Amino acid sequence: MTAVQGGRTPKVLHVSPEAVPFSKVGGLGDVAGSLPAALRDSGTDCRLLTPAWEGVLDRARELGFSLSRLSRKAEAVIRW
Are 36 and 80 in contact (CB under 8 A)? Predict the structure, then answer.
């Protein structure tokens, strides 16, 4: 199945205070981590914005995610 309609790929930005595999306190982290991956598999361009809590950037690097610095206040973008 593909999400492309009319020649355009849908773009979705997920914003969550936690997301597996970077951070998790409760069930929200599970959903926020798995939903972008599932939508990406259907052809949707998904991005995830989550705070760079202690250890999050290290975990992202360990998993091979590409990190880009935005500014002094915003730590990084993780390209899912």
Answer: yes
In the chain, DSSP finds a helix count (H) and a strand count (E) of 2, 4
Range of the domain at 41: 11-78
Q: What digits encode the pLDDT tens for the residues 11-63?
A: 999 999 999 998 999 899 999 999 988 998 989 998 888 888 888 888 988 99
Domain presence at residue 63? yes
Residue burial 26-40, b: 16+ Cβ < 10 Å; e: rest: eeebeebbebbeebe
Contact 26, 42 (CB under 8 A): no
Model pTM?
0.70
